[in-house]
Amino acid sequence: MSHHIVAVQDLHYAYADGTPAVQGISFRIEHGESVAIVGANGAGKSTLLLHLNGYLTPQRGTVQVGDVLLSKETLPQARRTVGMVFQDPDDQLFMPTVRDDIAFGPLNLGLPLDEVEARVAAALKRVDAEHLADRPPYRLSGGEKRAVAIASVLSMQPEILVMDEPTTGLDPAARRRLIDLLASFHHTRIIATHDLDLVLDLCTRTIVIHQGRIMADRPTLEIFHDAELLQRSHLEAPLRLQSCPVCSRTLPPPHDPEAHHHHHHDDLVEPHSHD
After folding, report:
1. Residues whose CB falls within 8 Å of the CB of residue 67, separated by 6 or more in sequence, listed in order
2. Which CATH number is 126's domain given?
3. Which backbone phi and psi does 100 adopt, to 5 degrees?
4. What is the domain range of residue 95?
5. 264: which DSSP letter?
6. For residue range 190-218, what is the model confidence (pLDDT) as tens digits?
7. Strand 188-192 and strand 34-38: pairing?
8. Within this chain, do residues 233 and 248 fall inside the same structural domain, yes or no?
9. Do 82 and 147 lie in a common domain?
10. How crowded is residue 250: how many other Cβ atoms within 10 Å of its Cβ?
11. pTM for this prediction
12. CA atoms of 42 and 212, how far apart (whole Å)
């Protein structure tokens, strides 16, 4: 089913001042894959993502979404296929109420009102935000805004979901809800993130970007076990894959009351809770 693929070929992009942001990136993502794009700040992740639904057009190279190459002419088609959730929900939410925000895209597609209403209801239900429908977006919490931003993309019924740093600013409970929500999607998912524990939960494949180039594109676990690659790319292994500093410390002999008091496992209710 080529109409669900994302193929980037030799993509180059430099900022107006000439600084290169993306330098010859190529990859192909098939239908239903869940792929993480990881890299330090300034690696080029956001710039790359903005090409996937045409916010930026390639200065060199091509971006293919489904059967079409991205260009000014094919933009409307590509944007129906690719739903983009920005890093900051405030960039996505601008209508007086949550319901209006979620209806905005489908209304722009010229869909009949009953179809728009059905899509809004389904998207709100999907992100568990029905109770927020009539609230102004600016009055929502960070987690609620993120859920509504995702709903405003789902109402367009995209086949490919692209997200930029989806867990930024979320508290642990909201982050867990978001991960569970994303795990339930059968879309193709492309997630740029610093949150490597989220990658471990959601993405079977990881593309590591460093200074605008691909350093590695392999199964996630392979990448996370490659300490040298992570170091070169300025990344830390997910916390769950780092040895627990408490468990791995040699316990002092019991006759030293000072040391014993500090480090004995019995003092620690949850030695593995690193959140």
Report:
1. 2, 3
2. 3.40.50.300
3. -60, -40
4. 2-242
5. -
6. 999 988 999 999 999 999 999 899 999 99
7. parallel
8. no
9. yes
10. 6
11. 0.84
12. 8
- Percentage of the chain surpassing pLDDT 90? 63
Closest alpha carbon to 208 in 219, 32, 197, 165 = 219
User: Half-sphere exposure of 189 toward its Cβ, with a 13 Å CA cutoff?
Assistant: 27
Instruction: Give the count of beta carbons closer than 10 Å to the beta carbon of residue 244.
Output: 14
* pLDDT per residue as tens digits for the range 118-141: 999 999 999 999 999 999 999 999
**pLDDT value at position 218?**
96
| Amino acid sitting at position 167 | T
Total of domains in the chain: 2
Are residues 220 and 203 in contact, defined by beta-carbon separation less than 8 angstroms? yes
pLDDT value for 253: 57
Provide the token pair at 148: 């509504």
Rg (C-alpha) for the chain, rounded Å, is 21
Q: Are 215 and 229 in contact (CB under 8 A)?
A: yes
Task: Tokens 């086949």: give the residue.
Answer: 159
Tell me which of 176-190, 209-223, 261-275 is least confident. 261-275
The answer to whether the CB of 103 falls within 8 A of the CB of 181 is no
170 compared with 117, residue with greater pLDDT: 117
What is the distance, to the nearest Å, from the Cα of residue 107 to the centroid of all Cα atoms in its chain? 26
What mean pLDDT do residues 32-37 have? 95
Lowest mean pLDDT among 17-31, 41-55, 104-118, 122-136: 41-55
Exposed e or buried b per residue across 216-235, where buried means at least 16 C-beta atoms within 10 angstroms of its C-beta: bbeebeebbebeebbeebeb
Question: What DSSP designation does 252 have?
Answer: P
Separation of alpha carbons 192 and 179, rounded Å: 14
Residues 144 and 217 in one domain: yes
- Residue length of the chain: 275
Residue 189, both tokens? 């998912």
